[in-house]
């Protein structure tokens, strides 16, 4: 089986649970008080996908706004970006939109975008209706899933969905156009020299 | 008073002269007591209490006893040789023997019992206060009684002996002047008695003088003094000499109790009649002793044996045969009832344990005390001889028979403990005699009470008593054993007969053994040793007192008979004189009457003559006229005379009045005079009384006690005296205890020092071994890890490896966390083994922790101790204000600050860095705190979010309830107000947390944060775009390329952007990237030197692991390694060395230049980006319009 290395970066507002999702996915572990990510953190996990092994190189980024300026370093060359928001915080959903916008502007052309509404377990204090988020995801042709890193809900699925979205190596170019609606636009000015 | 007088006596021993004051004492005592025969017993008892330790008579009689014991032995002692004359008299005066026998018997008993008492009480170095006496019921009963006797004899000495002296004076005139030089000196008691009579002592009472005056006339009446009394004193005086000698040998402290002993040798030159009476008593007494012994000698301990031990040299080399085995009977308090039980204690040399048995014959000990860890002490306010042995497990309360024995035990135990330590730890050193710094005089072991010979002592008692309740099994075993071996039992029973345990050295022992023989068949009915003397004493006391009373009454009778004839003579002569005087008076009166008659007749004659002359004159005149003339003339004369008479009468009247006046005046004056006289008399009386009192108190308090007028005073005085005595005793007791405790402390200190040295050595050894162990283990784990990775293993092998790894990880905590076994956190609360969830990483973490530990252990001696001393030297005597930047400080800081100084040094650095800001705003932090309470900062949401995610692995921040979190919140909020441009940036929480951990003060931590952000870091390090941080990453890349070109090329080849990882390092100054034992030294230097330290360390980290990086050829693996490799750095010294040595030269200017260069470039790029962004936005807006069209069309298509 061939191993494909897939660079994935996690974006999203501070405290939405990016690191927790990664931690849950990679180590199947949850820590209430996981340290806030400064700069970025790097983890890997290999999952089988079809007849391939996908090795996710996960770059977990810092959420605070002032770290946004560093984000390009991490999402550059990424095969996928997971934008995480907190279903109990409307603000985080607004931040998500900003990230979508930035990715649209500066991200790789063929990047797979997944929107993860984390803290699914706190449904009773939900501020972001699932419907609204789902509609938004659909509007940008992104993967949408509501997760709970704490209860290990949909975390595996999130990455499986991403895996499925990644086109097979040999016909990557062939499928790229129809797979990613986001990349329909030519994104002419993405090339930067960071 | 006592002490001084006795000391005086002792000092005058050689000269043989008595100090006068002691003479007075005795001299006054005698006559005075004569007058008080009725209250004698009470008084003497009171006096006894006053002088509890003195009891000269008691000692004398003790000596007497001893002499009896030693009489047949050859004394090498020159002093005792003087006694030799006494046996000579024996033959001469044998006939007296039977007469004296009864009193002898009495004396023998008394002497023996008192000997025991004096042995147990008086002859000790320790004299506890009478309160302690009272604590011991036995002793209190015992003590006063013998002394009462002693005192009872004092008066006898005083009252009877003087008369003997006078007798002798009369009978043998050549001895009348006792102080004549060259002459054999008379009995000092006689001298004592005589002296006051020869010198007129002003303080002496009237009565005394009377007696003195009267005595000589009646000498003949009491020529026969009670022989027993004389005998007693003389015997006593003989023996006190020996006693003194022994006491001197025993202990200098004892000297004070040998009151008036030195003059005793003179007894042998006494007037012969004394000696003749004295000597014959010995043989019968000897016999008596033999008879009485079995009952009275319950604790035998014959005094002569003390001398045997004088020859023993102490301390013996350990294990030498010359040393008596340390064993003996002691009372042990134990059991549920806290009762005293006699136990046989034996010290076991090899084990350094003190075993105790029920009886000496027992094989199985009831228990043992471990001496190596034991401390010894003894309480003052407890029964005599009680001492405690404290072992770590429990405290043993033991009691020796005497205080002396207790001290002996304690000293021996100390010696044993030390010897054992010496032999067990350093067998080469034979300095058991290093105990020369003794605080207490070394005690001789009291033979019979300690050592193997003591086994027989009170054996009879212990046969059936003292059965241990706690150890029934052992009891059973022991009894069985003893039955099995009757021969052994026998042997021990007859142990005393042939005292082979401690072969006595002097010839005295013959005597001892013969003395002991009668005791041999141990009678189980023997009363307890303490009880016997009491009974004995009361007996003898009772016997003694009647004779005393006899003597007293006789004495008084004698006196009264003295005075009677004198009075008769006086009255006869008086009568005669008065009769004569009366006669004379009568004759005088007769004469007077005659004279008056003569005078009256004379007057009548004169008047008759005058009449006759006038008649003659009248008749002689011739004429009538002439006769008339003459008549007239006469008439005139008569008138004149009448007038004169009247005048005279008036005068007389006046004079009478004045006389009456004078009389009145006179009577008045006389009244006054009488009053004055009365007053004067009263005053004189008072004066006399007072002076009496004064003289009484001055001369002898005992006398004052006798005078009834000052009874009250003397009572209080006596009380005070007694108190003083008690206090003196207390002082002495405390002194002895103090000395003992000092020696104990000294010993324990020595032991402790010894132990601590050993401990240090062992610690060093242990550290070294542990380090090697850690290295071995880490290597083993490394091998396991490699095995795990190798693909060539088959499944069985793989499983085995996996199992080994699991085992290794399980044992993880035990082996590595010895530093802080309870928590697994270091001194700052960081986890020693970082938590990694991945199995692989766990193994790594453990390897790393092991290596860190081994490095730390190895560095401890060579690096950390000297560093600590350097720091101590540097900071010694410097206040925090006196710290100045200097190359020395810089070097020290680079070598890291020891934990104990870190807080202080950091505070100093922070304050130095923030001085200007703080001076401008003195109450800055308080104001900011106030502000945060009032108005929330927009950053507070982010702060709250991050607060509970700060240093979560540190135990001070691990729980939401930690107080540090509240402090952290306030610090961060205050900072966000203090620096609005930054507000709050993720990462500042970590900086503040570290500051808080080290500085332990909220405000200091705040200023530390300010110092880092505002003074150390370049501008805009934490502001919106983290511009300066990004610049620093570029600068770092430059340095990497410069300092580590190979690695930089390697990274370049694998398309590695280290800044993805290192950005984090710089922003939070390596917090949570490095283990605390590297992080904190980094911060030490960082706070002082600034950001350059971060570059140095960052490069050093890469350099440290350069080879490892170069081996990895996959970018993903390199990234993975980059992410955690900082935590695998184990040798912080090596890293520091690389950072500050290998990276040189590292000019600060270069960093500055590069920063400005990259800043400009970055700013340019950002501007470009912004432009692009704007472009894109406008473009996208345009495109969006088009897109909308497209989408609509697409939708249309779909539809």
From TrEMBL, chain A:
<keyword id="KW-0968">Cytoplasmic vesicle</keyword>
<dbReference type="InterPro" id="IPR001806">
    <property type="entry name" value="Small_GTPase"/>
</dbReference>
<dbReference type="Pfam" id="PF00071">
    <property type="entry name" value="Ras"/>
</dbReference>
<dbReference type="InterPro" id="IPR005225">
    <property type="entry name" value="Small_GTP-bd"/>
</dbReference>
<comment type="similarity">
    <text>Belongs to the small GTPase superfamily. Rab family.</text>
</comment>
<keyword id="KW-0547">Nucleotide-binding</keyword>
<keyword id="KW-0967">Endosome</keyword>
<dbReference type="InterPro" id="IPR027417">
    <property type="entry name" value="P-loop_NTPase"/>
</dbReference>
<protein>
    <submittedName>
        <fullName>Ras-related protein Rab-31</fullName>
    </submittedName>
</protein>
<keyword id="KW-0636">Prenylation</keyword>
<dbReference type="GO" id="GO:0005525">
    <property type="term" value="F:GTP binding"/>
</dbReference>
<dbReference type="GO" id="GO:0030670">
    <property type="term" value="C:phagocytic vesicle membrane"/>
</dbReference>
<keyword id="KW-0342">GTP-binding</keyword>
<dbReference type="GO" id="GO:0003924">
    <property type="term" value="F:GTPase activity"/>
</dbReference>
<keyword id="KW-0449">Lipoprotein</keyword>
<keyword id="KW-0472">Membrane</keyword>
<dbReference type="GO" id="GO:0005769">
    <property type="term" value="C:early endosome"/>
</dbReference>
From TrEMBL, chain B:
<dbReference type="GO" id="GO:0031410">
    <property type="term" value="C:cytoplasmic vesicle"/>
</dbReference>
<dbReference type="InterPro" id="IPR000195">
    <property type="entry name" value="Rab-GAP-TBC_dom"/>
</dbReference>
<dbReference type="Pfam" id="PF00566">
    <property type="entry name" value="RabGAP-TBC"/>
</dbReference>
<dbReference type="GO" id="GO:0005096">
    <property type="term" value="F:GTPase activator activity"/>
</dbReference>
<feature type="compositionally biased region" description="Basic and acidic residues">
    <location>
        <begin position="61"/>
        <end position="95"/>
    </location>
</feature>
<feature type="domain" description="PH">
    <location>
        <begin position="323"/>
        <end position="418"/>
    </location>
</feature>
<feature type="coiled-coil region">
    <location>
        <begin position="717"/>
        <end position="751"/>
    </location>
</feature>
<keyword id="KW-0343">GTPase activation</keyword>
<dbReference type="InterPro" id="IPR001849">
    <property type="entry name" value="PH_domain"/>
</dbReference>
<dbReference type="InterPro" id="IPR050302">
    <property type="entry name" value="Rab_GAP_TBC_domain"/>
</dbReference>
<dbReference type="Pfam" id="PF00169">
    <property type="entry name" value="PH"/>
</dbReference>
<dbReference type="InterPro" id="IPR011993">
    <property type="entry name" value="PH-like_dom_sf"/>
</dbReference>
<protein>
    <submittedName>
        <fullName>TBC1 domain family member 2A Armus Prostate antigen recognized and identified by SEREX 1</fullName>
    </submittedName>
</protein>
<feature type="coiled-coil region">
    <location>
        <begin position="1152"/>
        <end position="1179"/>
    </location>
</feature>
<feature type="compositionally biased region" description="Basic and acidic residues">
    <location>
        <begin position="201"/>
        <end position="210"/>
    </location>
</feature>
<feature type="region of interest" description="Disordered">
    <location>
        <begin position="694"/>
        <end position="715"/>
    </location>
</feature>
<feature type="region of interest" description="Disordered">
    <location>
        <begin position="261"/>
        <end position="299"/>
    </location>
</feature>
<feature type="compositionally biased region" description="Basic and acidic residues">
    <location>
        <begin position="1180"/>
        <end position="1189"/>
    </location>
</feature>
<feature type="compositionally biased region" description="Polar residues">
    <location>
        <begin position="694"/>
        <end position="703"/>
    </location>
</feature>
<feature type="compositionally biased region" description="Basic and acidic residues">
    <location>
        <begin position="163"/>
        <end position="173"/>
    </location>
</feature>
<feature type="compositionally biased region" description="Basic and acidic residues">
    <location>
        <begin position="135"/>
        <end position="156"/>
    </location>
</feature>
<feature type="domain" description="Rab-GAP TBC">
    <location>
        <begin position="896"/>
        <end position="1090"/>
    </location>
</feature>
């Amino acid at each position: 089986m061939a191993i494909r290395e897939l660079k994935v970066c996690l974006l999203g507002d501070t405290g939405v649970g990016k690191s927790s999702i990664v931690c849950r996915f990679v180590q199947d572990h949850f820590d209430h008080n996981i340290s806030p990510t400064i700069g970025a953190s790097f983890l890997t996990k290999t999952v089988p996908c079809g007849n391939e092994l996908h090795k996710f190189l996960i770059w977990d980024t810092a959420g605070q706004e002032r770290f946004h300026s560093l984000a390009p370093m991490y999402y550059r060359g990424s095969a996928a970006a997971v934008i995480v928001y907190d279903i109990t915080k409307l603000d985080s959903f607004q931040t998500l939109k900003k990230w979508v916008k930035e990715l649209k502007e500066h991200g790789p052309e063929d990047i797979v975008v997944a929107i993860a509404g984390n803290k699914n377990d706190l449904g009773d204090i939900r501020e972001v209706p699932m419907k609204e988020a789902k509609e938004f995801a659909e509007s940008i042709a992104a993967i949408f899933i509501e997760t709970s890193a704490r209860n290990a809900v949909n975390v595996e699925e999130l990455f499986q969905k991403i895996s499925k979205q990644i086109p097979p190596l040999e016909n990557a170019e062939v499928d790229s156009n129809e797979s990613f609606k986001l990349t329909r636009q030519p994104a002419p000015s993405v090339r930067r020299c960071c | 008073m006592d002490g001084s007088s006795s000391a005086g006596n002792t000092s005058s021993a050689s000269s043989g002269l008595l100090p006068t004051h002691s003479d007075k004492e005795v001299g006054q005592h005698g006559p005075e007591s004569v007058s008080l025969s009725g209250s004698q017993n009470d008084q003497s008892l009171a006096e006894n209490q006053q002088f509890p330790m003195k009891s000269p008579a008691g000692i004398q009689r003790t000596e007497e006893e001893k002499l009896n014991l030693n009489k047949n032995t050859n004394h090498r002692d020159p002093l005792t040789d003087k006694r030799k004359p006494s046996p000579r008299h024996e033959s001469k005066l044998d006939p007296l023997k039977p007469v004296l026998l009864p009193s002898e018997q009495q004396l023998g008993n008394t002497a023996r019992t008192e000997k025991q008492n004096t042995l147990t009480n008086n002859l000790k170095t320790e004299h506890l206060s009478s309160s302690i006496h009272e604590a011991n019921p036995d002793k209190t009963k015992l003590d006063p009684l013998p002394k009462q006797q002693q005192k009872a004899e004092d008066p006898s000495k005083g009252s009877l002996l003087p008369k003997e002296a006078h007798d002798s004076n009369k009978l043998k005139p050549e001895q009348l002047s006792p102080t004549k030089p060259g002459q054999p000196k008379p009995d000092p008691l006689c001298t004592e008695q005589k002296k006051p009579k020869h010198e007129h002592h002003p303080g002496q009472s009237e009565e005394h003088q009377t007696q003195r005056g009267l005595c000589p006339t009646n000498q003949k009446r009491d020529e026969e003094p009670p022989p027993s009394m004389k005998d007693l004193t003389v015997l006593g005086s003989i023996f006190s000499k020996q006693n003194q000698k022994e006491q001197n040998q025993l202990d200098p402290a004892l000297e004070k109790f040998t009151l008036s002993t030195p003059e005793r040798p003179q007894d042998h030159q006494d007037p012969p009649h004394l000696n003749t009476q004295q000597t014959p008593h010995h043989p019968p007494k000897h016999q008596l002793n033999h008879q009485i012994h079995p009952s009275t000698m319950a604790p035998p301990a014959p005094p002569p044996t003390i001398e045997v031990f004088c020859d023993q040299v102490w301390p013996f080399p350990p294990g030498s045969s010359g040393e008596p085995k340390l064993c003996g009977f002691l009372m042990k308090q134990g059991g549920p009832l806290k009762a005293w039980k006699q136990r046989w204690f034996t010290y076991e040399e090899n084990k350094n344990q003190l075993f105790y048995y029920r009886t000496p014959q027992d094989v199985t000990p009831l228990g043992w005390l471990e001496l190596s860890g034991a401390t010894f002490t003894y309480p003052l306010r407890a029964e005599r001889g009680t001492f405690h042995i404290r072992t770590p497990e429990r405290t043993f309360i033991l009691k020796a028979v005497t205080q002396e024995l207790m001290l002996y035990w304690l000293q021996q135990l100390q010696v044993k403990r030390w010897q054992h330590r010496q032999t067990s730890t350093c067998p080469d050193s034979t300095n058991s005699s290093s105990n020369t710094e003794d605080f207490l005089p070394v005690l001789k072991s009291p033979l019979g009470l300690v050592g193997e010979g003591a086994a027989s002592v009170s054996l009879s008692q212990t046969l059936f008593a003292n059965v241990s309740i706690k150890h029934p099994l052992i009891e059973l075993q022991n009894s069985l054993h003893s039955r099995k071996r009757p021969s052994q039992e026998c042997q021990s029973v007859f142990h005393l007969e042939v005292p082979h345990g401690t072969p006595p050295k002097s010839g005295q022992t013959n005597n001892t053994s013969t003395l002991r023989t009668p005791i041999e068949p141990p009678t189980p009915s023997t009363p307890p040793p303490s009880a016997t003397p009491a009974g004995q004493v009361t007996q003898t006391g009772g016997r003694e007192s009647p004779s005393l009373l006899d003597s007293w009454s006789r004495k008084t009778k004698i006196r009264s008979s003295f005075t009677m004839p004198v009075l008769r003579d006086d009255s006869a002569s008086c009568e005669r004189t008065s009769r004569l005087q009366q006669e004379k008076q009568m004759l005088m009166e007769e004469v007077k009457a005659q004279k008056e008659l003569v005078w009256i007749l004379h007057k009548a004659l004169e008047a008759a003559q005058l009449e006759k002359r006038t008649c003659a004159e009248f008749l002689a005149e011739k004429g009538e006229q002439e006769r008339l003339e003459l008549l007239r003339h006469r008439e005139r004369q008569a008138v004149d005379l009448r007038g004169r008479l009247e005048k005279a009468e008036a005068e007389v009247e006046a004079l009478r009045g004045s006389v009456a006046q004078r009389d009145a005046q006179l009577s008045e004056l006389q009244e006054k005079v009488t009053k004055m006289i009365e007053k004067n008399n009263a005053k004189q009386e008072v004066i006399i009384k007072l002076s009496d009192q004064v003289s009484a108190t001055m001369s002898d308090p005992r006398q004052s006690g006798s005078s009834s007028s000052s009874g009250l005073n003397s009572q209080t005085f006596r009380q005070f005296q007694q108190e003083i005595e008690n206090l003196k005793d207390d002082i002495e007791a405390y002194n002895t205890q103090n000395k003992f405790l000092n020696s104990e402390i000294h010993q324990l200190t020595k032991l402790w020092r010894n132990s601590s040295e050993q401990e240090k050595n062992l610690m060093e050894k242990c550290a070294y071994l542990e380090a090697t162990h850690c290295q071995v283990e880490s290597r083993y784990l490394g091998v396991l890890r490699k095995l795990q990775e190798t693909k060539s293993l088959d499944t069985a092998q793989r499983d085995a490896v996996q199992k080994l790894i699991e085992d290794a990880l399980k044992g993880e905590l035990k082996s590595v966390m010895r530093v802080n076994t309870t928590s697994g956190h270091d001194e700052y609360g960081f986890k020693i083994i970082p938590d990694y969830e991945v199995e692989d990483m766990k193994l790594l973490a453990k390897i790393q922790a092991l290596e860190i530990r081994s490095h730390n252990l190895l560095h401890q001696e060579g690096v950390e101790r000297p560093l600590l001393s350097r720091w101590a030297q540097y900071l010694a005597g410097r206040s925090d204000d006196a710290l100045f930047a200097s190359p020395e400080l810089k070097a020290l800081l680079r070598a890291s600050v020891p934990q104990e100084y870190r807080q202080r040094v950091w505070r100093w650095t922070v304050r130095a860095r923030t001085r200007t800001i703080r001076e401008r705003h003195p109450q800055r932090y308080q104001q900011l705190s106030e502000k945060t309470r009032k108005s929330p900062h927009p950053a507070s949401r982010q702060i709250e979010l991050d607060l509970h995610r700060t240093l979560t692995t540190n135990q001070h921040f691990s729980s939401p309830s930690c107080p540090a979190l509240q402090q952290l919140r306030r610090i961060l909020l205050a900072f966000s107000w203090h620096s609005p441009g930054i507000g709050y940036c993720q990462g500042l929480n970590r900086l503040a947390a570290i500051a808080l951990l080290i500085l332990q003060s909220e405000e200091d931590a705040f200023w530390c944060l300010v110092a880092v952000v505002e003074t150390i870091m370049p501008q805009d390090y934490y502001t919106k775009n983290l511009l300066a941080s990004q610049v620093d990453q570029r600068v770092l890349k430059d340095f990497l390329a410069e300092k580590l070109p190979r690695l930089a090329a390697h990274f370049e080849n694998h398309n590695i952007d280290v800044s993805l990882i290192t950005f984090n390092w710089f922003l939070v100054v390596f917090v949570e990237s490095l283990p605390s034992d590297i992080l904190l030294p980094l911060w030490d230097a960082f706070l002082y030197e600034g950001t350059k330290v971060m570059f140095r360390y960052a490069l050093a980290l890469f350099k440290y692991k350069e080879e490892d990086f170069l081996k990895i050829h996959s970018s993903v693996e390199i990234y993975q390694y980059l992410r955690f490799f900082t935590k695998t750095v184990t040798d912080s010294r090596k890293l520091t060395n690389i950072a500050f040595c290998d990276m040189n030269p590292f000019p600060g200017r270069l960093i500055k230049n590069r920063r400005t260069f990259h800043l400009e470039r970055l700013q340019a790029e950002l501007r470009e980006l912004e432009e692009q962004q704007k472009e894109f936005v406008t473009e996208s807006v345009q495109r969006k319009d088009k897109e909308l069209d497209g989408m609509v069309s697409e939708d249309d298509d779909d539809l």
